[in-house]
Every structure is written in C-alpha cells, then in structure tokens.
Amino acid sequence: MSLLKIVQWRDLENWSANYYFRDIKSIKFTETKLSSFLKRVKKEIIVDDNVTYKRVTIKTKNQGIYLRDELIGKNIGTKKQYIINSNQFLISKIDARNGAFGIVPNELNNAIITASFLNYEINEEIINPLYLNLFVSTNYFIEICENNSSGTTGRRNVSEELFLNSTIPLPPLNIQEQFVTNYQEKIAKIAQLQQEIEHIEEDSKNYLLSMLGLEKNISEQQKTKENLLFFKKWSDIKDWGVESNLLKEFNATSNYPITAIKEMAEINPRTELKNLNSCSFLPMEAISTDGFILKNEEQNTKNSKGFTKFQENDIIWAKITPCMQNKKSAICKNLINGIGFGSTEFYVFRIKENTNLNFLYHFLRNDYFIKIAKKNFKGSAGQQRVPKSFLENFQIPLPPLNIQQEISSHLDELQEQIDKKKEEMAYLEMLAKSEFEQAVFA
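The structure corresponding to this sequence follows.
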C-alpha cells in the first residue's frame, strides 16, 4: 500500500488525514457516497398529552434498534419530536462512533425520536437495506463514524455533512443480494441453534423440579381457587415468611424432607486470608452469565479489605439486580492459593455435608427460583438486592446425596450441550461476518 495518497482539491471533504487513510483494506467495488442513497427525513410532530407514543433506543456495537418505552404524551418532556418509519436508517448522533445505528424494525413504525438522532430514507434502487445493515457492522464503517465525530470526550457528535459525504464500496444490486443471502443462511442456522438451546434450558429447569417431586401449578382452577389457601403442618413450619417456601409456587408432592438453604450451606461464611501474600481477585465482570470465571487475576491480599472473600468450591452468587437475574454466579475453581476476594455484591455459599455442590449450584440458577427471588428484592430501583434472610430461610425438598448427584450430573450434561451450541453460534457469527468482509474487501 502506498504511504502517499493524492486527493483532488474538489474531492477534499475533510482536513483530517485519518479520514482518507481509514480504508486500510483494498476495496473490490466502486465507492459510493452515502448521500447518493440516504435521504434525511425530518417528520416533525408536537407531542399530544393524551396520546401514547413509542420511544426507541439504539444499542451500541451494532446490536440494533429496540423499543425503549411507551409513554403517554403528558409524561414526555420534549414536545418537539420526529416520527420514524420501518426500514429507515437511524443513527444516534452521540453514539454513532460506538456502533449505534441500524434499520428501523416493523414493530417501531411510527415511533418518535428527538433531534439527537439522524433518520434517513434508503433508496432501494441503489442499495439493498440488508446489505447496508451488514456493512454498518464492519470496522470500516465504524471508522467512518469515528472520523466524522467531533466534540469533547464522551460527547462527540457525528457531523451529518461529513458523514453523508463519506463513501462505501457498493457492488451491483444482484451481488449485494448474493452477499445478503450467504450471510442469512448462517444467521438462520444460528437462530435454529438458539431455539435448540431454549428447548434444552426449558427441559433443564423442569427436570430439576420434577426430580424434586414438584409439578408446575398451571390449571386455571388451581390458579383461581386452590392457591388461595395453603395448608402446612405446624410441626413442619420453620419460617413464618410466606415467600420462603418453594411449595407455595408448586404442588407439594415431594417425599423428600423440606430443608432450608441455611441447613444446606452456610451463606457468607468467614474466610481467612492470613499468611497469604496473594490470591485470586474476581470482580463482578469476571463472572459470565453462563457460570464461567472469565478471568482469574492475582492480587495482593492487603487489597482485600472491604471485599467479599471466598475459597475453593464456594458458590458465588450475585445479589444485586440485574446481575442476579442474568445469573452471574459460579463455582470457585482453580483459585490462586485456594482463596479469592472480589465484588461486595456476591453472596458466598459454602456447602455442608448433606448437600451436593453442583446440585445447589444448579438450583440457585434455576429460572423458577430466580423468578421467586426477584419478588423479594429490597432497596431502591437499580440497587435492589436479594436479602440474605430470604436465601437462608428458603425451603426446598432435599433428596439423599446419591439422588442429588444424579440430578446434578444430568444437568451438567445438559449444560455441556448448551455450551457446545453457543460455541457453534459464536463461530457461525464470526464466519458470516468474515465471509462478508472478504467478499467486499480484497
């Protein structure tokens, strides 16, 4: 590649050298200005206090456009808004450089936006909207938005004039359609794998309850009448909290003893870090929603003051929303010196002799239990936490250890199937994007 690039005076759109050297790759097709197929749309309205409106949000990293909320007009502060329609191209001025753009989906037709967005009609005689949607996911397009943004750090808005004067490689429509078809074939396979995962996850959560002798209470009669009155023997009452018994949500057909979690594991036990120079450090972001420890950093134990402490084979379980709902939890394995510390927003479960480690781990991640725990959040919005007392006193049927082992082994197998399918999905997504870029760039 030549280190010298000549730009004709009449073609000089931007004084930044980076603007002209963004195209690191060779391009196979003629470059076309965005303004040739994108036409700005400004369909202004004044919000009516008595009408309900859809508002949108655009996720960064090219993750698409979604419904933000639906609000009645009297609760919308900015009265001057703009109507958007399906299949238009929408950009966030401030987050364009972070990949906040996309095609408006059908369900957001006639939604409203503020002046913080740029909205465009797409000339489909020049560009296939699906091709455009694919191209904006490339690093090449992100660089266009980055180079056309200006302002202070964190508040850099894209310049519409410079943006529209930018160019992208544009093959003929029939070739665009071919690229889109090849991409969609892999996306269809990803969607199929996602459905398979959802079926396995459903089987997994129902299998656990079935093995505990519980059936989901779904009949209309049970919903309307039978659940209004719940009988329990005086001798079996271990806690007065009505939300702390799994049998409240399901038919009580289990022959196993009803046991509080505090009898199965100690929650937030004392963990000593004495006589150690270093151990593992696991902040919240180190724990995936799939139960994996993503990074295991070594830190000096002198930095452990004020953090949650744990040791090998403890379960750490996020207590704050939305981390708990997203299943931020893991079994601590391969800790440095067998000890670790991290976020104060974890609960630590240390298993007692009557409980299988993986059995309790799977139960704490079960969707039905997560749903019940969510009902017991305490605190202000955005900072709600599951109380320790709720977890300690929550009661479930507890099978013998050999049955717990059987349950956990089967659930481990199902999780392995899920993990393999997720790996295949990630590979197909990477392959689809890679093949698209190879088709457009040399």
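Confidence is low (pLDDT under 50) at residues 14-24, 217-231, 238-243.
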